[in-house]
C-alpha cells in the first residue's frame, strides 16, 4: 500500500473527465511519473485554468482521491494518442480556490511555489493533504482505502 500524497496538475476540464471515469493521467500521458504513485496514495489535482493553456486564473484544487491497486496502463484515445493512466477512487468533493488556503499549506510556503508544478506531479505533505481534504469537504480518514 502506498504511503504518499501527490499534487498533480491539469486543466479543470481534463480533471473532470478523469473524475467521471475513475482515472488520472499526468504530464501529457507519460508513464514515468505514474510509476512513482502507489496503491492507496492520496492524489489532489490543482488546476491553474479551466482549459489547457487557458488564462482564466482558476487556480483551484479540483479533485481528491486515492489510487487503486494496479500498474499504470495505456489507453488508446485514437489518432495515435495512447496516454498512460492509473485508476483512482475519486471522492465527492467541492472545488476550492488555492487562495482559500493561503498561508496554511506547506506546498505554497515558498514565494515561487508554482515553479515546482511545471513538472505536473510533486509530493504533497500529509498536513497539506488533510487541509485540502477538509476544505474540499472530504473526510480523508473515512475515505482512505485500508488496502
UniProtKB/TrEMBL annotation:
Query: Which CDD domains does the entry link to?
Result: EVE-like
Cited Pfam families: EVE
The UniProt record lists the EVE domain at 6-134
- The stretch of residues making up the signal peptide is none
HAMAP family reported in the protein's UniProt record: UPF0310
Family, as annotated: Belongs to the UPF0310 family.
Protein name (record): UPF0310 protein AA2016_0251
Amino acid at each position: 500500500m502506498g504511503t504518499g500524497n501527490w499534487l498533480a496538475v491539469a486543466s479543470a476540464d481534463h480533471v473532470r473527465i478523469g473524475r467521471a471515469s475513475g482515472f488520472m493521467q499526468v504530464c501529457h500521458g507519460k508513464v514515468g511519473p505514474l510509476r512513482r504513485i502507489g496503491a492507496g496514495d492520496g492524489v489532489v489535482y490543482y488546476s491553474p485554468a479551466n482549459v489547457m493553456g487557458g488564462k482564466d486564473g482558476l487556480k483551484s484544487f479540483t479533485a481528491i482521491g486515492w489510487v487503486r491497486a494496479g500498474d499504470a496502463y495505456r489507453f488508446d484515445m485514437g489518432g495515435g494518442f495512447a496516454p498512460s493512466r492509473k485508476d483512482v477512487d475519486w471522492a465527492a468533493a467541492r472545488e476550492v480556490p488555492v487562495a482559500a488556503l493561503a498561508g496554511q499549506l506547506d506546498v505554497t510556503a515558498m514565494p515561487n511555489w508554482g515553479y515546482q508544478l511545471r513538472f505536473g506531479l510533486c509530493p504533497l505533505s500529509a498536513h497539506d493533504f488533510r487541509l485540502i481534504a477538509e476544505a474540499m469537504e472530504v473526510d480523508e480518514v473515512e475515505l482512505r482505502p485500508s488496502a
